[in-house]
Amino acid sequence: MILYTMVPQEQVYPTDTEEFSGQMMVEHQGVPLLVQKVEDKYRIIRIMSSDPAHYMNSTICPGEFIPN
Q1: Name one Pfam family in it (predicted).
Q2: How far apart are CA 33 and CA 45, in angstroms?
Q3: 2 in any annotated domain
Q4: Which residues on neighbouring strands pair with residue 46, listed in sequence order?
Q5: Residues 6+ apart with CB under 8 A from 57
Q6: Looking at the domain assignment, is residue 52 inside a domain?
Q7: Which pLDDT value is given to residue 8?
Q8: What is the pLDDT of residues 17-38, one digit of tens each?
């Protein structure tokens, strides 16, 4: 089976579940995001959209924080 995806192999087939603990999928401003909870906010890990316009939005780039 061939899996064509932009998601890293480590995330598709995780070997250590602690590395990805606390990560979840959320939708913010209509954009699907992979985020990690940090205190009372979410830190954006990855934009999970196929729309190129979502990557141009500077408020939802990886590393930025979004409210809970």
Answers
A1: YlzJ
A2: 7
A3: no
A4: 34
A5: 29, 31
A6: yes
A7: 84
A8: 555 568 899 999 999 999 999 8
